[in-house]
Amino acid sequence: MTEVATARRSRITPEREAELYGAVLDLLREVGYDALTMDAVAARTKSSKATLYRQWGGKAELVAKAVRHNKPGPSLEEIDTGSLKGDLHSLTRRSDDCDLEANSALMRGLAMAIHGNPDLLKAFREHLIEPEMAEFRRVLQRAIDRGEVRADNPALDYMIHMMIGGFAARSIIDEQPPTQDFLLSYIDAVVLPALCA
Predict the structure, then answer these.
(1) How far apart are CA 22 and CA 32, in angstroms?
(2) Prediction pTM value
(3) Which end of the chain is less congested by CB atoms within 10 angstroms, N or C?
């Protein structure tokens, strides 16, 4: 049964999958998660609803995978500059200011939707949160191995919170989108001193 499901799922080419994910993100930006329907995705992408459900199971998984696919540039796993500062700066430089602004608005909307939707939370945990946390743990382990960070530093458990916090709070507190300059200075002033103390 699993082999049949895998064979069915493999019919979508990577190019077609990227096109579908782009359309999903466009629709999310236009109508938000709650108003997004599989009918709308099918119409926008000229797909059958049956294909969408067979490939992704439902809206929550489709949205989570679309957001994950949209992450720019090399993954954290592929970034290894030889220093924690270099790795975090490289991560930040993957997106230009326009992308950061668009992604900030999208993530604010999805964060609100997650609160009332356990399926979306589960999909985000599986496809975004847990993989990102695993990547950050590898980056931190390299920093520990290089002697930049103490293994018993209590800030290690809060690194992802610090990174997301700076990104999310910029628009709330300063009423401005996050920019590369802001995030790089935030990393230097807040994240690195906490981790390298």
Answers:
(1) 14
(2) 0.79
(3) N
